[in-house]
Amino acid sequence: MPTLATRMDRLGTETAFDVLAKANALAAQGADVINLGIGQPDFPTPPHIVEAGIKALRDGHHGYTPANGIPALREAVAADLHRRHGVSVDPGSVVVVPGGKVTMFFAMLMFGEPGAEIIYPDPGFPIYRSAIEFSGATAVPLPLREENGFGFSADELLSLITPRTRLVIVNSPANPTGGVTPAAEMDKLAAGLADHPHVTILSDEIYSAMLYDGREHRTILSYPHLADRAIMLDGWSKTYAMTGWRLGYAVWPKDLVKKATRLAINDHSCVNAATQYAGIAALEGPQDAVEAMMRAFDDRRKATVEALNALPGVTCIKPGGAFYAFPNISGTGRDARALQDALLKEAHVATIAGTSFGGYGEGYLRLSYANSKENILEAIDRIGRYLG
C-alpha cells in the first residue's frame, strides 16, 4: 500500500458529480431519471463560438500559448468587464485558466497554510472548503441565511476576521442558493475591509451575468482601495454554456499576477489555444443566445418556485440569480441527505442535499432548473407524490 501525504485525507469532493454518476447508473438500468442535480446549462454552446474554435484549429493554432492567456483574449476580457461593470482593468492583470476551480486552488496555495484562516460561504460551493483544508489552513464558515435571501451579512463576515485571517471568499450570485448579496452589503464589506489590511478577498463572480428582476451586479473591482488585495474570478462556463470547454479567468492584484502566472506554468502550462479563440468570439460576438437562455431560465425559475411551494412540508424563496432553487425541506421531517437519496432511489429524481454545501445547508435541497420546464414540473410532481 503506498504511503500518501496526509493532505490527501483533507481533500473533499463535489457531490453533484457523485449524484450524477448514480443517476446515470440508474438510467443505464432502464430507469426514467430526471436530473435536477448537476449545475450545467442544458443549452448548447452558441454556434458562432463553436465555429471560432473550429476555425482556430483549421488556422493552425495548435501550439503553446502564453501561460496567462493570449493577449487578444485578455484584452477582450478587459473590454467586457468595462462594458458590463464599468470598471477599467489592465489586460496584464488577467490570467486565463482552464476553469474557475483553478483560480480557487491558486488562491489557496498562495494564502493557505497551517495557522492561517480562510473564511468561506456556507452553504457554498464545496470546493472552497475542500481546497482550504487541503492547503492546511483552517476553514471558517460564513453562514448564509434564508431570511437574508441567502446573501451574506457584511457585519457577520467582518466579525469573523482575526489576525490569522488571510483570505475571505464571497460568491454572488451564489451556488447553491441562487442568493444575491445586495450592493449595500458589498459596499459595507468593502468599507470594513479597510480596517483589515492583512486580508485579501476572492470574489467568485462566475454567475454575474445571471440575474433576475432587474438586479444589478456589484463587482469587487468597483472598489479602488481594494485593488491591491482583490481577486475576481469569472469565466465562460455558465454564461455561454461552455462547461466542457474549460475556460475561466481571474483579475489579480498587480503584485500577484506574476505569482499566479508562475503557478499556471507549473500546473498546466497554458489553456488550449482553440478554446481561447472561442472565448474571444463569446465576448465580442452577439449576445442574443445568452439573452434567450436567461429568458428561459427566468421562466423556469418562476415555475420551479411555484411548484415547490405547493409541496407538503416544503417552502422556497425566489432565487435572485444563477439557475438554482434551494427549497427548505425542514417541514418534511427528513434530513437533507436521506431525502436526496430517497428521491433518487424511489422517485428517480436527482437533487443535491444542502449538507453537500456545508453544515448550514441542513434542512435544504438544491435543485438546478437547468433542465426543460416539462422535466422540472414532472420531477417536482414526483417529489410531491413521494412526500405525499
From TrEMBL:
InterPro entries: Aminotransferase_I/II_large, AspAT/PAT-like, PyrdxlP-dep_Trfase, PyrdxlP-dep_Trfase_major, PyrdxlP-dep_Trfase_small. It catalyses: L-aspartate + 2-oxoglutarate = oxaloacetate + L-glutamate. GO terms for molecular function: L-aspartate:2-oxoglutarate aminotransferase activity; pyridoxal phosphate binding. Keywords: Aminotransferase, Pyridoxal phosphate, Transferase. GO terms for biological process: amino acid metabolic process. The keyword Kinase does not apply. Its EC number is 2.6.1.1. Residues 32-383 form the Aminotransferase class I/classII large domain. The keyword Cell membrane does not apply. It comes from the Bacteria. SUPFAM superfamilies: PLP-dependent transferases. Pfam families: Aminotran_1_2. Its cofactor is pyridoxal 5'-phosphate. PANTHER family: ASPARTATE AMINOTRANSFERASE (PTHR46383). Belongs to the class-I pyridoxal-phosphate-dependent aminotransferase family. This is aspartate transaminase.
